[in-house]
Design brief:
Elements (H helix, E strand, L loop, with lengths): L1 E9 L4 H14 L3 E7 L8 E9 L12 E6 L2 H6 L4 E10 L6 H4 L9 H7 L3 E5 L1 H8 L5 H12 L5 H9 L7 H12 L3
Parallel strand pairs: 1-4, 4-5, 5-6
Antiparallel strand pairs: 1-3, 2-3
Helix pairs in contact: 1-7, 5-6, 5-8, 6-8
């Protein structure tokens, strides 16, 4: 079993904690894992990309080029931007959330419409979740990344759900655990 994942989002959406949870789950399952954190313009609301590769064999590099098995996107436009890096037959697990980049805020460009439909029209499998709304229902909008992790966990059924939950428990502060567990369950139920 080997999977390469690109985690894409906007600064402040929790891409780094998502990588930590993925790494903890893969390691607990007995896989070798390498993660590369590319912070990007996180302090200015810019794109943030993190790479994760795990395997039952030795992983030598954490960098994913144009052959990612999975794009984990916390924002629609980031999912769309990462398409060239998804291998044929790969899957996108994405939030339906839209965050306007600076060119849209300044009026120089429009936010692209119907991104999930455009991705589907290219023959790409995409699993979408209204992560922000589900996180709010769980008690904290900052858990939107964990909703997407839950959807990923359901897709990566090789790794048992209990391992993902343990990884989550070991990765988030105790005071935020209940809402994160609810967010994970909400994401896990997304089909």
């Amino acid at each position: 079993m080997e999977k390469s994942i690109i985690i894409a989002g906007v600064g402040g959406q929790g891409t780094l904690i998502a990588a930590k949870i993925i790494g903890a789950a893969a390691q607990a399952f007995g896989l070798d894992i390498k993660v590369s954190e590319c912070h990007g313009m996180s302090q200015r609301g810019g794109s943030v990309i993190t790479y994760a590769i795990f395997s039952d064999k030795k992983v030598h590099s954490p960098v994913v080029t144009a052959n990612a098995d999975i794009i984990l996107a916390f924002e629609q436009l980031e999912a769309y931007r990462m398409l060239p890096f998804l291998k044929k037959g790969g899957t996108i697990v994405a939030s339906t959330q839209q965050m306007n980049p600076m060119p849209v805020i300044s009026g120089a460009m429009n936010y692209p419409e119907n991104i999930p439909e455009k991705i589907k029209s290219l023959g790409v499998k995409i699993i979408c979740a209204d992560a922000l709304n589900l996180a709010l229902q769980a008690g904290n909008q900052k858990c939107a990344n964990v909703v997407i992790i839950g959807a990923l966990a359901a897709h990566l059924c090789e790794i048992p759900k209990e391992i993902w939950i343990d990884a989550l428990k070991n990765s988030v502060p105790q005071k935020f655990l209940d809402e994160n567990l609810k967010a994970f369950e909400s994401g896990y139920a997304v089909k």
